[in-house]
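During the second half of the funding period, the structural biology subgroup turned its attention to how the target accommodates small molecules. The most pressing case was manganese (II) ion, which had performed well in the primary screen but for which no bound structure existed. We therefore specified the complex as follows and requested a full 3D prediction, including the ligand pose.
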Amino acid sequence: RSAGIVGAPFCKGQSRGGVEDGPERIRAAGLQRRLQQLGCAVKDYGNLTFEDMSLDEPMGLLKSVRAVGAANQKLSEAVRAVKEDGHTAVMLGGDHSLAIGSIHGHSAAVGELSVVWVDAHADINTPLTTYTGNIHGQPVSYLLHELRSKVPVLPNFSWLKPCVSAADVVFIGLRDVDPAEHYILKMLGVKTFSMSEVDQLGVARVMEETCDYLSARCFVSLNRGKKPIHLSYDIDAIDPSVAPATGTPVVGGLTYREGVYITEHLCQTGLLSAVDLVEVNPLRGQTEEDVRSTVSTAVDLLLGCFGRVREG
Ligand SMILES: CN[C@](CCCC[B-](O)(O)O)(CCN1CCCCC1)C(=O)O
Ligand SMILES: [Mn+2]
Ligand SMILES: [Mn+2]
Ligand SMILES: [Mn+2]
Protein backbone atom coordinates (compact mmCIF):
# COMPACT_ATOMS: atom_id res chain seq x y z
CA ARG A 1 0.00 0.00 0.00
CA SER A 2 1.03 3.62 -0.46
CA ALA A 3 -0.58 6.76 0.89
CA GLY A 4 -0.52 10.22 -0.70
CA ILE A 5 -1.35 12.83 1.93
CA VAL A 6 -2.91 16.19 1.02
CA GLY A 7 -3.53 18.76 3.75
CA ALA A 8 -6.47 21.11 3.21
CA PRO A 9 -6.37 23.73 5.98
CA PHE A 10 -9.77 25.21 5.11
CA CYS A 11 -12.62 26.37 7.32
CA LYS A 12 -14.98 28.46 5.18
CA GLY A 13 -17.53 25.66 4.75
CA GLN A 14 -18.64 26.48 8.27
CA SER A 15 -18.40 29.26 10.79
CA ARG A 16 -16.09 28.00 13.55
CA GLY A 17 -12.41 28.89 13.27
CA GLY A 18 -9.83 26.27 14.17
CA VAL A 19 -10.74 23.45 11.82
CA GLU A 20 -8.04 24.75 9.46
CA ASP A 21 -5.51 23.52 12.03
CA GLY A 22 -6.67 19.93 11.61
CA PRO A 23 -4.01 18.87 9.09
CA GLU A 24 -1.09 20.07 11.19
CA ARG A 25 -2.42 18.50 14.38
CA ILE A 26 -2.91 15.15 12.66
CA ARG A 27 0.58 15.29 11.15
CA ALA A 28 2.11 16.33 14.50
CA ALA A 29 0.56 13.23 16.08
CA GLY A 30 2.79 11.13 13.83
CA LEU A 31 0.55 9.98 10.99
CA GLN A 32 3.39 9.51 8.48
CA ARG A 33 5.65 7.63 10.90
CA ARG A 34 2.81 5.40 12.08
CA LEU A 35 1.81 4.60 8.48
CA GLN A 36 5.42 3.78 7.62
CA GLN A 37 5.57 1.49 10.67
CA LEU A 38 2.73 -0.45 9.03
CA GLY A 39 4.93 -0.93 5.98
CA CYS A 40 2.97 1.66 4.05
CA ALA A 41 4.89 3.95 1.69
CA VAL A 42 3.93 7.56 2.32
CA LYS A 43 4.24 10.67 0.17
CA ASP A 44 3.17 13.89 1.88
CA TYR A 45 2.12 16.44 -0.74
CA GLY A 46 1.96 19.15 1.93
CA ASN A 47 -0.84 21.62 2.55
CA LEU A 48 -2.79 23.39 -0.16
CA THR A 49 -2.79 27.18 0.14
CA PHE A 50 -6.11 28.97 -0.30
CA GLU A 51 -6.05 32.63 -1.25
CA ASP A 52 -8.12 34.99 0.86
CA MET A 53 -11.33 35.98 -0.87
CA SER A 54 -11.76 39.69 -0.16
CA LEU A 55 -15.20 40.03 -1.76
CA ASP A 56 -17.20 36.92 -0.91
CA GLU A 57 -20.59 38.30 -0.03
CA PRO A 58 -23.17 35.79 1.14
CA MET A 59 -25.56 34.63 -1.60
CA GLY A 60 -28.85 34.56 0.23
CA LEU A 61 -28.10 32.20 3.12
CA LEU A 62 -25.04 30.66 1.43
CA LYS A 63 -21.79 31.66 3.07
CA SER A 64 -18.32 31.89 1.53
CA VAL A 65 -19.45 30.41 -1.78
CA ARG A 66 -16.52 31.79 -3.80
CA ALA A 67 -13.95 30.63 -1.25
CA VAL A 68 -15.46 27.14 -1.05
CA GLY A 69 -15.62 26.88 -4.84
CA ALA A 70 -12.04 27.97 -5.37
CA ALA A 71 -10.69 25.76 -2.59
CA ASN A 72 -12.44 22.69 -3.92
CA GLN A 73 -11.26 23.30 -7.47
CA LYS A 74 -7.67 23.30 -6.17
CA LEU A 75 -8.32 20.25 -4.02
CA SER A 76 -9.88 18.36 -6.93
CA GLU A 77 -6.74 18.88 -9.03
CA ALA A 78 -4.54 17.85 -6.11
CA VAL A 79 -6.42 14.64 -5.32
CA ARG A 80 -6.53 13.71 -9.00
CA ALA A 81 -2.73 14.07 -9.16
CA VAL A 82 -2.28 11.92 -6.04
CA LYS A 83 -4.42 9.19 -7.60
CA GLU A 84 -2.57 9.44 -10.91
CA ASP A 85 0.65 8.93 -8.93
CA GLY A 86 -0.82 5.61 -7.81
CA HIS A 87 -1.43 6.32 -4.14
CA THR A 88 -4.44 5.87 -1.93
CA ALA A 89 -5.38 9.51 -1.36
CA VAL A 90 -5.57 10.80 2.23
CA MET A 91 -7.21 14.24 2.47
CA LEU A 92 -6.83 15.91 5.85
CA GLY A 93 -9.42 18.62 6.59
CA GLY A 94 -10.52 21.18 7.20
CA ASP A 95 -14.31 21.13 7.09
CA HIS A 96 -16.49 18.68 5.18
CA SER A 97 -17.22 21.01 2.26
CA LEU A 98 -13.81 19.73 1.08
CA ALA A 99 -15.39 16.42 0.14
CA ILE A 100 -16.68 18.20 -2.98
CA GLY A 101 -13.15 18.59 -4.35
CA SER A 102 -11.81 15.35 -2.93
CA ILE A 103 -14.51 13.16 -4.46
CA HIS A 104 -14.54 15.13 -7.72
CA GLY A 105 -10.79 14.75 -8.12
CA HIS A 106 -10.90 11.08 -7.17
CA SER A 107 -13.60 10.46 -9.76
CA ALA A 108 -11.63 12.39 -12.40
CA ALA A 109 -8.84 9.87 -11.88
CA VAL A 110 -10.77 6.60 -11.48
CA GLY A 111 -14.19 7.19 -13.02
CA GLU A 112 -17.20 5.73 -11.25
CA LEU A 113 -16.73 5.20 -7.52
CA SER A 114 -18.61 4.20 -4.38
CA VAL A 115 -18.86 6.57 -1.44
CA VAL A 116 -19.00 5.47 2.20
CA TRP A 117 -19.94 8.59 4.22
CA VAL A 118 -19.32 8.14 7.96
CA ASP A 119 -20.86 11.08 9.79
CA ALA A 120 -23.42 12.14 12.40
CA HIS A 121 -24.88 14.19 9.54
CA ALA A 122 -25.95 13.48 5.95
CA ASP A 123 -24.40 16.70 4.56
CA ILE A 124 -26.97 16.52 1.77
CA ASN A 125 -28.74 19.87 2.14
CA THR A 126 -29.01 21.75 -1.14
CA PRO A 127 -28.30 25.48 -1.37
CA LEU A 128 -32.09 25.92 -1.16
CA THR A 129 -32.78 23.61 1.82
CA THR A 130 -29.90 24.57 4.09
CA TYR A 131 -30.86 26.16 7.42
CA THR A 132 -27.43 27.57 8.12
CA GLY A 133 -25.92 28.37 4.74
CA ASN A 134 -22.83 26.44 5.79
CA ILE A 135 -21.62 24.46 2.80
CA HIS A 136 -20.12 21.71 5.01
CA GLY A 137 -23.76 20.61 5.43
CA GLN A 138 -24.26 20.39 1.65
CA PRO A 139 -21.37 18.61 -0.16
CA VAL A 140 -23.28 15.45 -1.10
CA SER A 141 -25.93 17.46 -2.96
CA TYR A 142 -23.23 19.06 -5.13
CA LEU A 143 -21.85 15.65 -6.11
CA LEU A 144 -24.98 13.61 -6.96
CA HIS A 145 -26.21 13.28 -10.54
CA GLU A 146 -29.78 13.02 -9.23
CA LEU A 147 -29.65 16.44 -7.53
CA ARG A 148 -28.10 18.33 -10.44
CA SER A 149 -31.28 20.33 -11.01
CA LYS A 150 -31.41 21.29 -7.33
CA VAL A 151 -27.98 22.91 -7.20
CA PRO A 152 -27.62 26.19 -9.11
CA VAL A 153 -24.30 26.95 -10.77
CA LEU A 154 -22.55 29.09 -8.20
CA PRO A 155 -19.57 31.46 -8.57
CA ASN A 156 -16.25 29.55 -8.67
CA PHE A 157 -18.16 26.26 -9.07
CA SER A 158 -18.40 26.19 -12.88
CA TRP A 159 -15.62 23.53 -12.88
CA LEU A 160 -17.82 21.11 -10.86
CA LYS A 161 -19.84 18.35 -12.53
CA PRO A 162 -21.82 15.81 -10.50
CA CYS A 163 -19.89 12.54 -10.47
CA VAL A 164 -21.64 10.16 -8.03
CA SER A 165 -24.87 8.18 -8.32
CA ALA A 166 -27.16 8.06 -5.30
CA ALA A 167 -27.19 4.27 -5.44
CA ASP A 168 -23.42 4.22 -4.99
CA VAL A 169 -23.53 6.04 -1.62
CA VAL A 170 -23.88 4.53 1.87
CA PHE A 171 -24.20 6.61 5.04
CA ILE A 172 -23.11 5.27 8.44
CA GLY A 173 -23.56 6.99 11.82
CA LEU A 174 -26.48 9.34 11.07
CA ARG A 175 -28.16 10.90 14.09
CA ASP A 176 -28.70 14.59 13.24
CA VAL A 177 -30.47 14.87 9.88
CA ASP A 178 -32.53 17.90 8.84
CA PRO A 179 -36.12 17.31 7.60
CA ALA A 180 -35.28 18.29 4.01
CA GLU A 181 -32.25 15.99 4.08
CA HIS A 182 -34.41 13.14 5.32
CA TYR A 183 -36.85 13.78 2.48
CA ILE A 184 -34.03 13.79 -0.07
CA LEU A 185 -32.56 10.55 1.30
CA LYS A 186 -35.98 8.85 1.11
CA MET A 187 -36.80 10.27 -2.32
CA LEU A 188 -33.52 9.03 -3.77
CA GLY A 189 -33.62 5.75 -1.86
CA VAL A 190 -30.12 6.29 -0.50
CA LYS A 191 -28.78 3.48 1.69
CA THR A 192 -28.38 4.70 5.27
CA PHE A 193 -27.29 3.12 8.55
CA SER A 194 -28.26 5.54 11.29
CA MET A 195 -27.08 5.00 14.83
CA SER A 196 -30.33 3.08 15.40
CA GLU A 197 -29.27 0.52 12.80
CA VAL A 198 -25.76 0.43 14.24
CA ASP A 199 -27.34 -0.44 17.59
CA GLN A 200 -29.80 -2.88 16.06
CA LEU A 201 -27.48 -4.73 13.68
CA GLY A 202 -24.07 -4.16 15.22
CA VAL A 203 -21.19 -2.64 13.30
CA ALA A 204 -20.02 -5.93 11.77
CA ARG A 205 -23.40 -6.55 10.13
CA VAL A 206 -23.59 -2.90 9.05
CA MET A 207 -20.26 -3.30 7.25
CA GLU A 208 -21.26 -6.62 5.65
CA GLU A 209 -24.47 -5.07 4.36
CA THR A 210 -22.63 -1.95 3.21
CA CYS A 211 -20.15 -3.97 1.15
CA ASP A 212 -22.82 -6.34 -0.20
CA TYR A 213 -24.94 -3.36 -1.20
CA LEU A 214 -22.09 -1.58 -2.97
CA SER A 215 -20.89 -4.70 -4.79
CA ALA A 216 -24.37 -5.85 -5.78
CA ARG A 217 -24.57 -2.80 -7.98
CA CYS A 218 -21.78 -3.96 -10.27
CA PHE A 219 -23.80 -6.96 -11.49
CA VAL A 220 -26.47 -4.65 -12.85
CA SER A 221 -24.26 -1.88 -14.15
CA LEU A 222 -22.07 -2.01 -17.23
CA ASN A 223 -19.08 -1.70 -14.94
CA ARG A 224 -18.44 -5.38 -14.15
CA GLY A 225 -15.60 -4.63 -11.76
CA LYS A 226 -16.33 -3.41 -8.25
CA LYS A 227 -16.03 0.35 -7.93
CA PRO A 228 -13.17 1.92 -5.97
CA ILE A 229 -14.34 3.16 -2.57
CA HIS A 230 -14.08 6.76 -1.39
CA LEU A 231 -14.37 6.86 2.41
CA SER A 232 -15.37 10.31 3.66
CA TYR A 233 -14.95 10.22 7.43
CA ASP A 234 -16.27 13.12 9.53
CA ILE A 235 -14.72 12.83 12.99
CA ASP A 236 -18.08 13.91 14.45
CA ALA A 237 -19.39 10.43 13.60
CA ILE A 238 -17.46 9.33 16.67
CA ASP A 239 -19.07 9.94 20.04
CA PRO A 240 -18.09 13.32 21.54
CA SER A 241 -16.85 11.52 24.68
CA VAL A 242 -14.01 10.22 22.46
CA ALA A 243 -13.74 12.97 19.83
CA PRO A 244 -15.04 16.21 21.36
CA ALA A 245 -12.86 18.68 19.42
CA THR A 246 -15.14 19.15 16.42
CA GLY A 247 -17.51 21.81 15.16
CA THR A 248 -20.89 20.07 15.34
CA PRO A 249 -20.72 17.36 18.02
CA VAL A 250 -23.82 15.16 18.53
CA VAL A 251 -24.31 12.77 21.45
CA GLY A 252 -24.86 9.08 20.84
CA GLY A 253 -22.06 8.49 18.35
CA LEU A 254 -19.86 5.60 17.33
CA THR A 255 -17.56 4.15 19.94
CA TYR A 256 -13.85 4.25 19.27
CA ARG A 257 -14.04 0.48 18.51
CA GLU A 258 -16.94 0.83 16.09
CA GLY A 259 -15.21 3.70 14.33
CA VAL A 260 -12.00 1.77 13.89
CA TYR A 261 -13.84 -1.43 12.87
CA ILE A 262 -15.39 0.46 9.95
CA THR A 263 -11.93 1.36 8.61
CA GLU A 264 -10.49 -2.12 9.23
CA HIS A 265 -13.38 -3.70 7.33
CA LEU A 266 -13.10 -1.32 4.38
CA CYS A 267 -9.33 -1.86 4.26
CA GLN A 268 -9.92 -5.61 3.92
CA THR A 269 -12.06 -5.10 0.82
CA GLY A 270 -8.95 -3.97 -1.03
CA LEU A 271 -11.15 -1.37 -2.73
CA LEU A 272 -10.30 1.63 -0.55
CA SER A 273 -8.98 4.24 -2.97
CA ALA A 274 -9.30 7.57 -1.12
CA VAL A 275 -10.03 8.70 2.43
CA ASP A 276 -11.10 12.09 3.81
CA LEU A 277 -10.59 12.75 7.53
CA VAL A 278 -12.37 16.03 8.28
CA GLU A 279 -13.78 18.33 10.96
CA VAL A 280 -11.06 17.95 13.57
CA ASN A 281 -11.12 21.37 15.26
CA PRO A 282 -8.55 21.81 18.04
CA LEU A 283 -10.23 25.03 19.22
CA ARG A 284 -13.42 23.12 20.03
CA GLY A 285 -11.75 21.02 22.69
CA GLN A 286 -12.20 22.28 26.24
CA THR A 287 -8.95 20.76 27.42
CA GLU A 288 -5.72 19.68 25.78
CA GLU A 289 -6.79 16.11 26.52
CA ASP A 290 -9.95 16.71 24.50
CA VAL A 291 -7.79 17.71 21.54
CA ARG A 292 -5.32 14.89 22.04
CA SER A 293 -8.09 12.28 22.20
CA THR A 294 -9.76 13.65 19.07
CA VAL A 295 -6.53 13.83 17.06
CA SER A 296 -5.37 10.41 18.27
CA THR A 297 -8.68 8.86 17.22
CA ALA A 298 -8.38 10.50 13.80
CA VAL A 299 -4.90 9.00 13.36
CA ASP A 300 -6.08 5.54 14.45
CA LEU A 301 -8.99 5.69 11.99
CA LEU A 302 -6.54 6.46 9.19
CA LEU A 303 -4.18 3.67 10.30
CA GLY A 304 -7.14 1.25 10.16
CA CYS A 305 -7.56 2.22 6.49
CA PHE A 306 -3.99 1.14 5.78
CA GLY A 307 -3.93 -2.24 7.43
CA ARG A 308 -3.44 -1.62 11.14
CA VAL A 309 -5.32 -4.35 12.98
CA ARG A 310 -5.77 -4.44 16.72
CA GLU A 311 -4.49 -8.01 17.03
CA GLY A 312 -0.97 -6.66 16.47
C1 LIG B 1 -27.63 18.86 9.97
N1 LIG B 1 -27.31 20.00 9.14
C2 LIG B 1 -26.52 21.05 9.73
C3 LIG B 1 -25.18 20.53 10.20
C4 LIG B 1 -24.22 20.17 9.11
C5 LIG B 1 -22.95 19.52 9.67
C6 LIG B 1 -21.90 19.38 8.64
B1 LIG B 1 -20.80 18.29 8.95
O1 LIG B 1 -19.78 18.36 7.96
O2 LIG B 1 -20.26 18.49 10.25
O3 LIG B 1 -21.39 16.98 8.92
C7 LIG B 1 -27.14 21.63 11.00
C8 LIG B 1 -28.43 22.31 10.78
N2 LIG B 1 -29.13 22.47 12.07
C9 LIG B 1 -28.44 23.51 12.91
C10 LIG B 1 -29.15 23.70 14.23
C11 LIG B 1 -30.62 24.01 14.02
C12 LIG B 1 -31.29 22.97 13.14
C13 LIG B 1 -30.54 22.80 11.85
C14 LIG B 1 -26.35 22.13 8.66
O4 LIG B 1 -25.75 23.17 8.97
O5 LIG B 1 -26.85 21.91 7.52
MN1 LIG C 1 -19.77 16.00 7.65
MN1 LIG D 1 -20.87 15.84 10.75
MN1 LIG E 1 -18.83 20.03 10.84
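Two results from this model are relevant to the next phase. The first helix runs from residue 22 to 28. The pocket of manganese (II) ion (ligand 2) is lined by residues 96, 119, 121, 123, 234 (CB under 6 Å).
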